[in-house]
Amino acid sequence: AAHLERLLSEGEPAEDGREGRLGPSTVVLDHTTGFEGLLFVDDDLLGVIGHSNFSSIRATTCVFKGKWIYEVLISSQGLMQIGWCTLDCRFNQEEGVGDTPDSYAYDGNRVRKWNVTTTNYGKSWAAGDIVSCLIDLDEGTITFYLNGQSLGIAFSNIKMGPGIAYFPAISLSFKESVAFNFGSRPLRYPFQYQLSDPPTADLLKANRLLGYIKNVLSTTIDTQEGKLVEKDIGEWQLQGDPTVLVTLAHIFNYFAPLMCKVYLVEDVLMNFLLSILEGGGSVEEHPLIQQLLDLFWLLMEDYEVNECLKQLMMSLLRAYRFSPIIPDLGFQIHYLRLTTAILRHEKSRKYLLSNSLRRFLNGDTFDVLRSVVFFYIKTPLRVKEAGLEELIPTTWWPTRFDKEGKDERDPREESAEERLRRRAYERGCQRLKKRIEVVEELQIQILRLMLNSKDKGTGEASRYIFLNKFRKFLQENASNRGNPTVLCPPEYMVCFLHRLIAAVRSYWDEGKRKIPGTVPSEEAYVPPQLFYNGKVDYFDLQRLGGLLSHLKKTLKDDLASKANIIIDPAEIQATSMDDLDEDEESGAAQRPSGATAMGGALARPSWLSSPTLGRANRFLSTAAVSLMTPRRPLVPPEKVKVRTLTVEQRTEEDIEGSHGNDGLLLGRPPEESDHTITEKSLLEILDGIVMMYNLSVHQQLGKMVVVSDDVHEYAVALKDTEEKIARCPSKRPDILEELQKSQKVFAEKLNHLSRRLAWINAAIYSKEKMLDVYWLLRVCIRTIEHADATGSLFAFTPEFYLNVAMNSYSALKNYFSPSNCMEELPGYEDTLTQLAAILAKHFADPRIVGTDIKDSLMQALASYVCYPQSLRAVERIPEEQRVAMMRNLLAPYEQRPWAQTNWILVRLWRGCGFGYRYTRLPHLLKTKPEDANLPSLQKPCPSLLLQRHMAELLGQDKDMAASFLNSVLNQLNWAFSEFIGMIQEIQQAAERPERNFVDTRQLKVCATCFDLSVSLLRVLEMTVTLVPEIFLDWTRPSAELLLRRLAQLLNQVLNRVTAERNLFDRVVNLRLPGLESVDHYPILVAVTGILVRILVDGERQGVSRAAAVLLSDPCFQLHSIQHLLGESEPAVAGAPPAPSERKHFSLHAYTDYISTEEKRKVEQMLAFLTEESKQAAASAPTSEEDLCPICYAHPISAVFKPCSHKSCKACINQHLMNNKDCFFCKATITGVEDYRGASTLAAMQGA
């Protein structure tokens, strides 16, 4: 020992006596007086997150002479200003570093430098970059570096002199985060001017001691020769000569305390371990790291090993996250290989897992929020630096996609040059993908180590430690929406999800090979008992049937009869108690001793004091479930008290079960088979994967599509510019020059974006990632099917399963094309049909109570029937389900969100209606061709099969038909009246002399009311075409009334829209943004379709009835029908003639959309109505006494009983829908007779 001390003391360096610095030698952020705004600061006082509009903070140490540098690790790429400031700088919520005279900053978000004024400077930064800030107080300059590369001098002649000293400082906006390195750790890009002095003496000692350790490990004693012999250090074994171990123990007495210091772990130990792996080969070929870790656990105190491992993993994580991207991803692979080697050591792995999920701000543990970074592959923003130009030398981009996501061009139309470019680009993308796959495979290896369920030699298996931490991780992300300090960034979550799916599926299929009767991962699902037996914590997430406490009260009998679970009344009471502390104490008292994790039971995190989280946890820790075991029919069932354990208390036995205990699958319903699915721990991880997708993965997948959209936009712009260059006259070289500049800019941008897109397609939208999302979709479908089979217990299913089923399908359809195609997925058509069956059944499922989830189901079904493939899937579901779906769609519109239902019916009709085959609004093609490609107008794909079901239902069920059509007519009356009211307000605002702006929200509501009116008219057209007898067969009780109401509404619409120089015309001619869809064509063609059907296409008796009703309506005006064909209203005596240039609406102008046959029918209808109106005028009643005293429009045709008052049938039928008292005497009407003495007593039809 004395010899060792003497060796270590030799050549000790003198203390660094650098001048020019004031303040503590260990530099941290000043969290006491040096900040403005609201910030979260890590416990190490180096990491910071903004939590208000614009927060600022400075360091504890300042400099006044010499050169000094510090590094900032950029964790998020938003708005931040990083640099230097003096003590005199006063910041606020609007002004930060660089906004005051004596402060200087670089802002990589806006690519600018700031010192009161601002100019362009540097490059844009991204999450994972490192900014170095160098101040030279000898020359008076400030320079910034990005990932070690100088951005040039930013400021010169900065203020210097007596009393002037500069602090490192930052200002950052809400949710932005960084970590500082003032020199407490080795700088990622070393300079000799770091603010904190490096621990030179300790560094020298640590390096010497490490050298001694290497010497001992590479030496063996030849017992025969009695001398020391050199050997390969890689072959060293712990079970060697005792002399070697004693020697090492002496060295470790000095070495172990040094390995608790972060600087030495990163600079000495990590670099040594990395050097062991530099030789290449698999990690398993380097057993020395395992032997060294054994040595650490043997010769170091537990607290020393714990601290050393924690610092080592944090250093590795930082190194991985902030490594620059190079073409072969060499840095990332290097750090992941060492991480894998460390985690292969069982004792070290379990320590790290046990301490991997404390709160982010605790800072004293290696937490899962940070460790998820290991599964992330960052996307390069700067293509050149990432080496993508060398990897993908040739760029290419698709030009235009249709609504199904496919390239509209036929591959046969490609030129030879384009084909060569595309193939070269695809080869480059394939090279990039292979390199990314190497990193992904290492990440999956790390997860497989964490999911090892057989390593029980040193306590609980890794998988069960991971599982409990993983659940806690999900809880923090599910329960802290909006709190940036604990949320895992969505881009990390996407990568984590895919690696976790790969690891879980590999273990699942391994289990399948060992136990042949189990379910393969291809058919994986989550059994329904997980949702109601209390074994898995779903926090405060919504269930399909509402709140869990409510379900346990209302469905307790079903739980007892179907799942043998009896809810203790005390449990229901406990959920309503407000005293959290009592519950926690009782929970702690009941905690079983076997539930303690390695290193003792984990403390309850302080953040669980949040009211909502507290309730969820209290409920879980006090739940008492009594179980009846159905396996002993001859003996009265035993009641076994089982308490739902909090996440941190569960053991392997609680999860997997043993000896008749079903573990997580307790309470199997009779509908579920009793065969083994897989290991129960994998089922819970699978459940967590589905939850992860719902939390943020789907949202992130949608965000990343923006790069593909940008490529498309720039490709269109480039093509447009090239066409303009071709048309540019030779006399205008100035225009040609500008166009060529634009062409160059667009081409450069496309080259950059196409390489970025290659990376995103390889890392996020690859075929393998698509298969993962598809697998998740199928898992959700099977889970929902199994849960649905349990009847009322389906209400316990968490809402997120339905959300993920809908969202994952949407992602597959919209996000992964055109590089990958849904049709190529295995079992694609069957999956579409299964999902169609779920949407068809559950959009009106009474077991589902949440408004949001019901709306989502309705919207998903509406989207489903828009596209031919998914519509055919709906047609493939069993007939019974199709008919039930149509019955639900035809329920009366009152008391439910009817608009989506109506859109669904309209989409089933589009393509069959009169002039209803357009994919772009025809009137827009005449006025604004560039705006005509509206996203909501897909190619028509009507369903004749579902139309047939609708016809059968309405034809057979007279009551349903009457109530459905009355509700449609009511909604049409409301929607069109609202629309007319709103355009009156818009017109008044437009006519005022002062400058007025119509509220955009009002315009949007107005356009929506118009669209609703059109769609309701189309549903009426659909009904009158499929089931004309509802209106025209007057043996049906409500037919005449429905026909009169229909005629009344059609006349109102026609009169409002077709009158000369009317309100509708004036508003349409304003061409206001937001009202593009409002025009004559959509609404008039819909009305025409109904009129043609009842007046031209019907049987003679029906046609004559329809004509009589239409003409007898007091609002009927023949010129409204003439208007459809462009025939103007006859001039009124004394009125000024209409301007000759005035253009009328005419169906003749839309030859591309109205067929010749359709035009012929309109002409036939006009001729018929003209003749009929002449006859009606000739036979009009001469005496007012013969007219109905209510409407004065129709002749008297009904007598009320018993009071004998009279009216027309239309008035009395409409009145009796809502009221049974006589108009005149208020007597209760018991019957209605024909006025002409036909003595047919009509049974009263209530509404």
From TrEMBL:
Transmembrane segments: none annotated. Residues 1188-1226 form the RING-type domain. Residues 1-23, 578-601, 648-673 are annotated as: Disordered. The gene is RNF123. The keyword Mitochondrion does not apply. It is an enzyme of class 2 (transferase). Pathway: Protein modification; protein ubiquitination. Its EC number is 2.3.2.27. Residues 1-21, 649-659 have a biased composition (Basic and acidic residues). The keyword Ribosomal protein does not apply. Residues 7-187 form the B30.2/SPRY domain. This is E3 ubiquitin-protein ligase RNF123. GO terms for molecular function: ubiquitin protein ligase activity; zinc ion binding. It comes from Scleropages formosus (Asian bonytongue). It catalyses: S-ubiquitinyl-[E2 ubiquitin-conjugating enzyme]-L-cysteine + [acceptor protein]-L-lysine = [E2 ubiquitin-conjugating enzyme]-L-cysteine + N(6)-ubiquitinyl-[acceptor protein]-L-lysine. Component of the KPC complex composed of RNF123/KPC1 and UBAC1/KPC2. Interacts with UBAC1 and CDKN1B via its N-terminal domain. Interacts with RIGI (via N-terminus) and IFIH1 (via N-terminus). InterPro entries: B30.2/SPRY, B30.2/SPRY_sf, ConA-like_dom_sf, RNF123/RKP/RSPRY1, SPRY_dom, SPRY_RNF123, TPR_RNF123/RKP, Znf_RING. GO terms for biological process: protein ubiquitination; proteolysis involved in protein catabolic process. Keywords: Cytoplasm, Metal-binding, Methylation, Phosphoprotein, Transferase, Ubl conjugation, Ubl conjugation pathway, Zinc, Zinc-finger.
